[in-house]
Amino acid sequence: MTTHLQATTTLSNGVKMPWFGLGVFKVEEGPELVNAVQTAIRHGYRSIDTAAIYGNEEGVGEGIRQGLKEAGIKREELFVTSKVWNADLGYESTRKAFELSLKKLGLEYLDLYLIHWPVAGKYKEAWRALEQLYKEGRIKAIGVSNFQIHHLQDLMQEAEIKPMINQVEFHPRLTQTELRAFCKEQGIQVEAWSPLMQGQLLDHPVLKEIADRHHKSIAQVILRWDLQHGVVTIPKSTKEQRIKENADIFDFELTAEDMQLIDAMNENLRVGPDPDNFDF
């Protein structure tokens, strides 16, 4: 069981990835972003997740530099993820997008690079580029985001290297049970985005009852539920108190009954786009 903030899961290629990290979706460039990344590193986070489409890789890079310096740790101790956007899916265009992300972040390599969405007819060429960059040592691990079972099956028919990660929308209203089972069978680590359903679950009575019983917040209960399901999670916050609070989930454990009650909240309800009907 995950017992501390810097605990890791071992991906299929042997790379160790923190179970818990900071997401920066919709956080604009500027001091708030830089400070959030720096603050997370100061408080022990060792995983930062961004994407080209977020438009904030430069700020994330600056936050990383300041955070590493302040914490007195090496770059190798941090796990940094970015993603190639839909408009750049193609062999050469993906390679160019990767170089641009790396330049903006000010890094020499990425720990994880993902195809952001499974755009029909485009992701296989992009994957070929990721495989090549991985072989060149420019990326420590490669994966996908928002891929359903049929997308993964289609990709793996021709892929030389199997995706190591599938980052998907995952929260108590969208438990992705079949997809998680498939990924586990294939040795693909599932990672959650929007674990708190963009704040829509923070007054739910079932979650409140469980939270009260454990003397925790609803957000902490949900994030703990993620980890106990073996799902890597990357909640977003820019406020220091929330960044600290989100990570304070390693001193309690949900019971089997708690887990079942939360699982039963599933409605297959998305807050993000449907991966089967999203191009740009």
From TrEMBL:
Domain of life: Bacteria
Family matches, as PANTHER family: 2,5-DIKETO-D-GLUCONIC ACID REDUCTASE (PTHR43827:SF1)
Positions of the catalytic residues: Y54 (proton donor)
Protein residues bound to substrate: H116
Pfam family, one: Aldo_ket_red
Organism of this sequence: Brevibacillus panacihumi W25
Designated name of the protein: Glyoxal reductase
Transmembrane intervals: none
Molecular function as annotated in GO: oxidoreductase activity
Alphabetized UniProt keyword annotations: Oxidoreductase
Keyword Metal-binding among record annotations: no
CDD domains given in the database record: AKR_AKR5G1-3
NADP-dependent oxidoreductase domain: residues covered: 31-267
Record family assignment: Belongs to the aldo/keto reductase family.
Oxidoreductase keyword on record: yes
Annotated site (Lowers pKa of active site Tyr): K83
SUPFAM superfamilies associated with the record: NAD(P)-linked oxidoreductase
